[in-house]
């Protein structure tokens, strides 16, 4: 197991948002966190790299509780891609170079530059490497954000709704990229998702949240229409179309 | 496109090399402007003689005295103050995630002006008439400076305290800063209403920032603080880049965003406070120069901090030289000129299509 989450609880002021969250993830697997709006998907993601401080619980990466580490140590183990990366007058290369920050001492080394170059190639961003990111489209900017997180050389990637506000083609490209990286690079990924069909297509494991706790979890064959119906309050059926599971509200 | 190994890195190095060239050109330009500025004034001193005097060869007793006692401190004060205000502006814009962040827009200058007015009126450090130059001088400049400094620190403390209380977010900092600014402006107006002619004159006189006010000792003190802050900001340069990419991205990269924000704000405010309390309010340098620098080297703080301080120096030095030449033999305070630069800057910001 690369990741074990043990009894994470989170409170916002006096309101309990997450309670007793437990799950595990293997190397080279993608997990999707699913559930209705406001259930705490993003909160859970942020608890995992201590952007939000959980009240209780542990997040073990290779048996080491990252919640007890310094923020910079966490950044060496977990890469985080927020829902929206802010554009600035930086080149894509500079933006990806930022991913080397947690490993940097005083200045960048030739190694850092090399890692950034190979990351850019891996994600096929060569064309935009020296373009300013405030001139990139939403999809391109999102890819730069993912490249930055990969340049961090993490064991686990956290992606907050990586496909929100992207068109169909970009959605597929982004998730293809994530899958590619996870398969080849010895990392795992956790992403929060709204689109169930995309989640089914690209993830190995699923975690359904309801009322701040895990309602169901498992791989595709453990997910039933009843679970989805309960979680979202909408009756659905799951059909199989050319080996891809598709959710259809009924 | 050729993407053989190292090709992107090579092109990236070219790209950053260009920025370094601009910065070096700026330094050369600043040196040239410095010599020209020293040579110009009520007494014109040829450039060559200026150079000779600067290198320690006494050309004439009179010129020597003018250069070392009047022109050089004034020119260096303009350079240091311009650099300090501009760097403070760059950092505030980054940590507040707002292109309008500057020492001027956040109430620090207004508080210093109030402090000076308070000192003149209430502590009686007020004015004596003289017939030369600016017509008014302040009889006890040190107390005025200290009180002005105290009030600008007070605003800083208020901004930081409210941020602690309500969350260290750009919104809280900006709103508290703007509120403090208008509070102290109101306070200054109230004091001015009850001031007699002489007091009013010295309050207004103080408000117009002027780089000819600083002596060598004061210049040394300002320089010390400005240099320390530039070193600190340079150490934090990557963190400012990370914050530019968004708070969450920065946190994901291991940056303690709140701490960077609080310390950066404290340091930028301190620089502003010390400059403003010795020289008076010098508006807009801290707002304009960072934007000019962004236009040339982009938002990468590795280059932006240096570029901003050079442009700040260049701008304040040119403005001061112009102010000295405009209505000879009188000298305008440099702040009168820089304030006029405000409006075109805002329009430039809008037309330049920067995100606001």
TrEMBL record, chain A:
Top-level taxon of origin: Archaea
Keyword terms of this UniProt record: ATP-binding, Nucleotide-binding, Transport
Enzyme class: translocase
Keyword ATP-binding (UniProt): yes
Domain ABC transporter as annotated: residue spans: 3-236
Enzyme Commission numbers on file: 7.6.2.8
Catalytic reaction(s) noted: an R-cob(III)alamin(out) + ATP + H2O = an R-cob(III)alamin(in) + ADP + phosphate + H(+)
Family matches, as Gene3D superfamilies: P-loop containing nucleotide triphosphate hydrolases
InterPro entries: AAA+_ATPase (IPR003593), ABC_transporter-like_ATP-bd (IPR003439), ABC_transporter-like_CS (IPR017871), Metal_Ion_Import_ABC (IPR050153), P-loop_NTPase (IPR027417)
PROSITE patterns per the UniProt record, alphabetical: ABC_TRANSPORTER_1, ABC_TRANSPORTER_2
One example GO MF annotation: ATP binding
Role noted for this protein: Required for corrinoid utilization. Probably part of the ABC transporter complex BtuCDF involved in cobalamin (vitamin B12) import. Probably responsible for energy coupling to the transport system.
Entry similarity comment: Belongs to the ABC transporter superfamily.
Protein name as it appears in the record: Cobalamin import ATP-binding protein BtuD
UniProtKB/TrEMBL annotation, chain B:
Keyword field contains Membrane: yes
InterPro entries, per database record: ABC_BtuC-like (IPR037294), ABC_transptr_permease_BtuC (IPR000522)
A GO BP annotation: siderophore-iron import into cell
Organism domain of life: Archaea
UniProt xrefs under Pfam families: FecCD
Keywords: Cell membrane, Membrane, Transmembrane, Transmembrane helix, Transport
Listed GO MF terms: transmembrane transporter activity
UniProt membrane topology term: Multi-pass membrane protein
Transmembrane segments: 20-41, 72-92, 104-122, 142-162, 174-195, 215-235, 270-293, 305-323, 330-351
Keyword Transmembrane: yes
Gene Ontology cellular component annotations, sorted alphabetically: plasma membrane
Localization of this protein: Cell membrane
Subunit structure: The complex is composed of two ATP-binding proteins (BtuD), two transmembrane proteins (BtuC) and a solute-binding protein (BtuF).
PANTHER family reported for this sequence: ABC TRANSPORTER PERMEASE PROTEIN MJ0876-RELATED, FERRIC ENTEROBACTIN TRANSPORT SYSTEM PERMEASE PROTEIN
The family this protein is said to belong to: Belongs to the binding-protein-dependent transport system permease family. FecCD subfamily.
Function: Required for corrinoid utilization. Probably part of the ABC transporter complex BtuCDF involved in cobalamin (vitamin B12) import. Probably involved in the translocation of the substrate across the membrane.
Protein name, UniProt field: Cobalamin import system permease protein BtuC
UniProt source species: Methanolobus profundi
């Amino acid at each position: 197991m690369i990741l074990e989450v043990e009894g994470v609880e989170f409170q916002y002021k006096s309101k309990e948002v997450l309670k007793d969250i437990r799950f595990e993830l293997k190397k080279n697997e993608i997990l999707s966190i699913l559930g209705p709006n406001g259930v705490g998907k993003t909160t859970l993601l942020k608890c995992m790299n201590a952007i939000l401080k959980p009240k209780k619980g542990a997040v073990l990466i290779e048996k080491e509780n990252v919640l007890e580490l310094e923020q910079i140590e966490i950044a060496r183990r977990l890469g985080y891609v927020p829902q929206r990366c802010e554009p600035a007058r930086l080149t894509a290369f500079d933006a990806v170079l930022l991913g080397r920050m947690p490993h940097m001492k005083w200045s960048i080394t030739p190694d850092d530059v090399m890692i950034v170059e190979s990351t850019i190639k891996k994600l096929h961003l060569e064309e935009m490497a020296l373009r300013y990111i405030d001139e990139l489209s939403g999809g391109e900017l999102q890819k730069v954000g993912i490249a930055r997180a990969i340049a961090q050389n993490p064991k686990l990637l956290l992606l907050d709704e990586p496909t929100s506000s992207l068109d169909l083609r970009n959605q597929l490209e982004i998730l293809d990229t994530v899958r590619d990286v996870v398969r080849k690079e010895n990392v795992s990924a956790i992403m929060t998702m709204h689109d169930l069909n995309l989640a089914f297509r690209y993830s190995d494991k699923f975690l359904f949240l309801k009322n701040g706790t895990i309602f169901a979890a498992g791989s595709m064959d453990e997910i039933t229409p009843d679970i989805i119906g309960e979680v979202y309050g909408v009756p659905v059926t799951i059909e199989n179309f050319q080996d891809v599971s598709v959710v259809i509200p009924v | 496109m050729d993407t053989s190994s190292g090709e992107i890195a090579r092109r990236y190095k070219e790209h950053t090399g260009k920025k370094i060239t601009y910065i070096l050109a700026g330094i050369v330009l600043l040196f040239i402007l410095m010599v020209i500025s020293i040579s110009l004034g009520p007494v014109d001193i040829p450039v060559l003689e200026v150079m000779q005097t600067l290198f320690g060869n006494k050309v004439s007793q009179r010129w020597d005295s003018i250069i070392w006692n009047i022109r050089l401190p004034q020119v260096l004060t303009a350079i240091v103050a311009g650099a300090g205000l501009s760097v403070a502006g760059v950092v505030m814009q980054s940590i507040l995630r707002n292109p309008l962040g500057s020492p001027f827009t956040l109430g620090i200058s207004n508080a210093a002006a109030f402090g000076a007015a308070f000192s003149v009126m209430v502590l009686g450090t007020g004015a004596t008439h003289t017939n030369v130059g600016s017509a008014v001088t302040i009889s006890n400049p040190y107390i005025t400076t200290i009180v002005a400094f105290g009030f600008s620190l007070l605003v800083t403390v208020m901004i930081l305290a409210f941020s602690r209380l309500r969350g260290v977010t750009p919104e809280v900092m900006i709103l508290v800063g703007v509120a403090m600014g208008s509070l102290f402006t109101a306070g200054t107006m109230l004091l001015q209403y009850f001031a007699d002619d002489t007091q009013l004159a010295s309050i207004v006189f103080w408000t117009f920032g002027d780089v000819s006010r600083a002596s060598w000792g004061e210049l040394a003190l300002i320089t010390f603080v400005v240099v320390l802050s530039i070193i600190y900001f340079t150490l934090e340069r990557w963190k400012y880049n990370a914050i530019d990419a968004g708070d969450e991205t920065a946190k994901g990269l291991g940056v303690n965003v709140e701490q960077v924000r609080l310390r950066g704000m404290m340091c930028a405010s301190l620089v502003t406070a010390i400059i403003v309390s010795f020289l008076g309010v010098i508006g807009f340098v801290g707002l304009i120069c960072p934007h000019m620098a962004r236009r040339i080297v982009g938002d990468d703080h590795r280059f932006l901090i240096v570029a901003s301080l050079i442009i700040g120096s260049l701008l304040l030095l040119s403005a001061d030289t112009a102010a000295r030449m405009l209505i000879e033999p009188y000298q305008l305070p440099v702040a009168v000129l820089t304030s006029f630069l405000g409006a075109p800057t805002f329009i430039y910001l809008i037309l330049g299509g920067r995100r606001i």
